[in-house]
Amino acid sequence: PGEGAAGAEAEAEAEPGEAADMAVEPEGHVPADSAATASASTAKPAAAPTVPLAILNTMSVLMATSKGLGKRVRLGDLGLKRRGGRGKRGMRVYQDDSVASMCVVPSDDLPPAPKRPLEPWQLWNEQQAALRAAEAAEAAEAAQAAQAAQADDAETQATAADTSTAASAGAEAKTGDDSGEAKKVVLAEEAFQALDAAYQALDSATQAPFIEEHARQKESYQEALQHRRQLEEEISRLGQILLCTAEGLVTRVKLHSFPVMKCNTRARVVMTVQRGDAVKNACFISSIDKQLDEEDVPAPAPEKMAETAVPQPETEDPMETGA
Q: How many CB atoms lie within 10 A of CB 91?
């Protein structure tokens, strides 16, 4: 009886939280910690971090074929696939050719070559062509307006007018085609001489705007060409491509000789391969313009040679020794 009373007093003095812990849990109840663990175990694994497209595009896959063709494809154009999936066609290969080697290289490439400046007579010819096109457009608008006015007439008259207009339009189109073909033949034979002669017949005041425009285009062309040469030097410092054939022919070309192109396109010729030979390997190397051989090392100056000469030991004169 004493122990029972002591136990009752201990339960009465217990804290509310401890009493809740001592309570019996109903059947089927899952603790919160166990539920969290189970949900964590059944949850899908977190997706792998993706590489930004800007970083992927800084590198490219270089592909070289056995016939000496090559190109580069940016890594960003090659999507990430699941294991066992089908690949993406990075390069279209001819039937008698095959990919021989590939490697990962930088994506730096040269911009397109700048457009050459037009001569003054060419600028004048473009202006005249634009004026003729504007006149033709105005004439077409006037013809459309006339046809719209004729459409307000009676149905029979409109039908007859449409028939005659279509016939005349067909005759004009045929005449225009014939004259266009004749013009092409004439321009193919004497285009430059005729246009230049017509331009030279103009007075100096009329020629002045075209000469100024030619000077501006020439200046812009020189600046763009200089910028392209600077980029070419910078890209050349990145590295070069070394190609080797089955018969032992080796060549070293610049990186931008392999253009950066889209997927599923033809490559360009980067090496001439003889019949019976084939490219076997292509690798990316550091840029080396020229290594100095022993013959290329400049000889030291005469003054420095005198300073660096080894002194010879003094020899006694036999006559003086005998004396």
A: 22
Side-chain-side CA neighbours of 36 within 13 Å: the count stands at 3
Sequence-distant (≥ 6) Cβ neighbours of residue 165 within 8 angstroms: 147, 150
Q: Are 62 and 35 in contact (CB under 8 A)?
A: no
User: Using CA atoms, how far apart are residues 209 and 199, in angstroms rounded to an integer?
Assistant: 13
**Which letter, b or e, does each residue of 95-129 get, where b requires 16 or more Cβ atoms within 10 Å of its Cβ?**
eebebbbeeebbbbbbeeebeebbbbbbbbbeeee
Provide φ and ψ at 269, rounded to 5°. -75, 125
pLDDT digits (tens, 9 = 90+) for 170-185: 544 444 454 555 555 5
As a whole number, mean pLDDT of residues 65-92 equals 91
For residues 109 and 259, is the Cβ–Cβ distance under 8 A? Answer: yes
Nearest to 299 by CA among 308, 291, 290, 288: 308
Pairing of strands 91-92, 250-254: unpaired
> In angstroms, what is the C-alpha Rg of the chain?
43
Distance (Å, whole) CA 158 – CA 151: 6
Q: What is the pTM of this model?
A: 0.52
3-class DSSP assignment, residue 270: coil
